[in-house]
Amino acid sequence: MIGPRRIIMALAFPLALSGCVTGDDYSRNEAGFISVANKTASVEAKETVWIQNQNQARSAGAQVKSLLARTKPLDVETAVQIALLNNKGLQAAYADLGYRAADAWQSTMFINPTVSFGTTGIGTPELQAFKTIEGMITTNILALATKSRDVAIADTRFRQAQLTAAVRTLQVAADTRRAWIGAVAAWENVGQLQRAQATADAASELAAKLGETGAMTKGAQAREHVFVAEIAGETAKARLAARLAKEELTRLMGLWGSELDYQVPNSLPPLPKSVAKRDTIEAEALRNRIDLQVAKLELEATARSYGLTEATRYVTDLEILTGFETEREIEDDEKKTRTTPQVELEFAIPIFDTGKARMRKAEVAYMRAANLLAEKAVNVRSEARSAYEAYRSNYDIARHYRNNVVPLRAKVEEESLLTYNGMITNTFELLTDTRDKINSILLSVNAKRDFWLAEANLAPAIYGGGATNASAETEVAAASGSGGGGGH
């Protein structure tokens, strides 16, 4: 038999290599999320939380209910804050960060050694015949030699996961902001169409009375009646679009059950007196875009992996084996025991695989990452220019409708009313001018909505987290195209 002392001493060497378990996994998780929270606060000035237990979940839920209760109707900043606290997809992104933190922590640990025991010999315990007991401990020496590079790669991936979680956070904030703008604009359009409906109803009722007296032909009456029917259909479509826009906002905020009973304002905020000047928006975007930083880290991680492949191209597996062999002989009731330490080295001879294929794959992966980074830099500058151009131009368009088109339509309606009172024009000319004014107001509301959407896209263009392409932004604008009305 082998004494317990020898077993303990045999196990001591690999355990010393493997190191001790510490609280690094927890600290890495916390440090990773703190970085995400700080980046979010610097851009959005909002709080975000990583919910990891029931107490945290209850605290976040109570905070959401408090925000909903004290903010009526729901403003855009409160909507964004609720989304950052309550969006479950965001919590999944934070869990991915924790997973990557655990990987980074695991990379700092040595490979567990393998311990093996065996016996050889003949006879039975009663006969006490010749018997040999062997023990062997193996560990991967290649993993020891490349450990610092493995740790560096894992740490790069961890930092990349931090930035990815920050991008996801900013994306939820930007999507929520756009959804709020779309929902409010949609209900504002509903309100305008309802006013147009009232005008159309008055015209239709008047046409019916004039038809009874014979003062209006049936064709003219039909034109007024069909206009009423068309307005009713447009109002119904606008109301549906407004409900769907509000549902999009609800999904992003993660609300359900009794939380669904919230209201959005009747109309969007008025245009600001002036627009912000961003003469250096391209430089700001290149300096601050988090997704560009993620691409840089991807190139860094690929470069480190490439260096690791180059260092290990000729050796696919290398192990150092340490152990002991114990022989025990019993002859004439006399026991003889001999223990011999052993050290062996094992590695695969690269007869067929010289590592060239792996080197080629590493080179191609590096060039791919480099070109993706270059493309991202070009796109970031273009997206920044486009975002500011849309912001500046939509402001001019919205201001044009507010300052020129709508006042002119109001003037036309006012003059039409004067001529009607003077019995120069008839009722239907007055109603037509009123309808034209309402249509111009609808165009003005949509122009104001487009400006606020463009304003909401400025921060994502500079910091990241915006729509991935122009079509996505167009879909957001289209979804919120026709609607508006408070208390919804």
From TrEMBL:
Organism, as annotated: Rhizobium anhuiense
UniProt-recorded Gene Ontology molecular function terms: efflux transmembrane transporter activity
Protein known as: TolC family protein
